[in-house]
Amino acid sequence: MFPRKLMSVGNSLLEKASLPVSKATFTLMTYNMLSPYYMWPQVYTYVPDKYKEWSYRHRLLEREILNLYRADIMCVQELTCKDYDGFWKTHFKNKMNYGSSFISKTPPKYWKRPNDEMDGVGIFYNLEKFEHISTTSIYLNDLIGLFNISELNYLKSTIITLTNGAGEPVDKDSLLNVLHGRNQVSLFVSLMHKETRTLFIVVNTHLYWKYDEVKLCQCLTIMRKLHRVIKQLLMGREGATYSRVKILFAGDLNSTPDSPVVKFLKGESVHRSDFSLINPLRPYLNHYIYQDTSSELFEHTCYSGKLKGIFDYIWYHDSDFRLKRILSGAEVSQELRQLKEHGLPNKFHPSDHIPVLIELELLD
């Protein structure tokens, strides 16, 4: 196993980190854990059976999350309700003094397992550094009150060509119906950074894995809900202003850096029919971590057989935070080439994604 390196970031140069940690810094991680119920036989043919076992992978996850990385804020995806309630929630609270929040997706029609084996997204946070204020969650197929008439007409009139797992066309449907039929979720946790009294909202999500139009609309739904969460957080807080709130948006966006989703989040105008979509939260989010790092540090963050790419992101505003250090991912790609393996998970890595870990400095 090639050890991954925590690299310092500054003046566009990357070197091995040896920077002191100040009081105004904290670490944040996003990680798709790969649910045991998504270990599809037709996808993970390259993984030996013993490394598919959930007990084996869970031990590796515990080692990474609890010991190796142990970030102050952890955003995880594909965490099952059963595993959250039965292990992570209690372990983090009783042994590490971390708080947590979780939302499970609704089971799809094909789901034959118990509901508590459905996955969702969770956020864990260090209570020594952060005070929990509130938690909000949404289902991304609930569009009521978030889209205007012209946008809804666009959703109804836009036709999506539906494909199977192999990418072959099988049917067509309206974008609106496709959105209603998806079960993705998003979690919003409001925190106060104890040292600086700064208000944070941490957002975690896992967007649908295909159809750019669906992912773009899901992202717009999150941003519009986030605006309401910010407003609610400020209500009743004496002297609180919108400029006091800082946003951290993390998750598996299933989108490459050249995708419409990433362009939208950066604040670029994404043109559709008779109107343009512009991120309403661009004053809070304009920057993602790979903009501050060398392209040599990451080939991929997802290594699932045929599906490989940079899909896992952490977003913020570059006037609110400075990226100080990041855990390089290139070593994983080098390791797979040396082992002549097609993808993850494997003996050393419990998921088909790698954890993305950073250290951020809070700016005035």
UniProtKB/TrEMBL annotation:
Q: Which organism is it from?
A: Lachancea nothofagi CBS 11611
| Species classification | Eukaryota, Fungi, Dikarya, Ascomycota, Saccharomycotina
Q: What name goes with this protein?
A: LANO_0C02586g1_1
Q: Which Pfam families does UniProt cross-reference here?
A: Exo_endo_phos
Residue ranges constituting the Endonuclease/exonuclease/phosphatase domain according to the UniProt record? 29-353
Task: Check the record and name the InterPro entries matching this protein.
Answer: CCR4/nocturin_mRNA_transcr (IPR050410), Endo/exonu/phosph_ase_sf (IPR036691), Endo/exonuclease/phosphatase (IPR005135)
Q: Which GO terms describe its molecular function?
A: 3'-5'-RNA exonuclease activity
